[in-house]
Design brief:
Length: about 280
């Protein structure tokens, strides 16, 4: 008598929950928790007065404002223009589409130092683009605007690659139904398409922001690193390390970590809220 094979329970392709969860916790502890805890432990060797003095000096506060401000602006720009790029790549067919699609991933493949040198050459006063902007009184290289340009450049792929799959899986029937009921293209976009891609846009924003806050190589060349003007926090941390001030470097890193965590947690809560709201509709 031939036995009928029993159906395997879903989710059991790899070893059971206990072993998989144990490996997951071990790996995250080894890669994430131990390095982060080492940063906090090193910071705890400082007195409160020394810690506060290290993280609230005038130059450090100015670097916080530039780093987080430029990161937020760059991520916001990528949400708008990255969303448009993703829309064009998904909804239209045109010659050279695959080439443009491959260009989106260029910031991933390009070494950050090369990206920084290239952007500086383009946007300097005698660069291909900078020479025309200079005539308009717009200075990009060696200014905070140059930092925004660099962070926008490295963050674009995160938004495009996050939104693309959602647009590809979107139901065209809903758009056709909205159009048949008399909705204008603008109404269709804001009431049908946009709610479905908002979580993906928020995810792309979070990824682009997270990458931008820690970016170093592509920024230091175009920023010019002028104190109180275009000096980013990661550069300040490197400077502290070169001066063998490890406690001061980790103190600034802890502040960046806490601020980044709060901002990312806020974005994730907003993302969960938008998904919950979309599910109720």
């Amino acid at each position: 008598m031939t036995s009928i094979p029993q159906a395997r329970a879903p989710g059991r392709v790899i070893p059971g929950f206990g072993l998989s969860l144990g490996f997951t916790i071990f790996y995250l502890t080894l890669i994430v928790l131990i390095p982060l805890s080492a940063v906090f432990l090193k910071t705890f060797t400082m007195s409160w007065e020394a810690f506060w003095s290290a993280v609230t000096s005038e130059r450090v506060v100015a670097s916080y404002k530039l780093t987080f401000g430029a990161s937020l602006i760059g991520a916001a720009l990528n949400v708008v223009f990255g969303g448009i790029v993703a829309w064009v790549l998904v909804r239209y067919k045109f010659p050279g589409k695959r080439f443009i699609d491959a260009l989106v991933d260029l910031p991933f493949a390009l070494p950050t130092a090369v990206a920084g040198i290239t952007l500086t050459a383009l946007y300097s006063n005698n660069g291909w683009i900078g020479q025309y902007l200079d005539k308009l009184g717009i200075k990009v290289a060696f200014t905070p605007l140059g930092v925004v340009v660099a962070l926008t450049f490295i963050g674009l792929p995160f938004v495009v690659r996050t939104v693309q799959p959602v647009l590809e899986e979107a139901e065209r029937e809903l758009e056709e139904a909205a159009a048949s009921l008399g909705a204008s293209p603008l109404q269709t976009f804001f009431r049908v398409i946009l709610p479905s891609i908002v979580p993906a846009l928020l995810t792309g924003f979070a990824l682009a922001f997270a990458r931008a806050t820690g970016e170093y190589g592509s920024v230091i060349f175009i920023a010019g690193n002028l104190p109180m003007v275009s000096e980013i926090t990661p550069l300040f941390i490197i400077t502290k390390l070169e001066q063998y001030d490890y406690a001061g470097a980790t103190a600034i890193a802890v502040v960046m970590l806490i601020i980044s965590f709060i901002l990312l947690l806020t974005i994730n809560l907003l993302q969960a809220w938008t998904r919950k709201r979309a599910g109720k509709k």
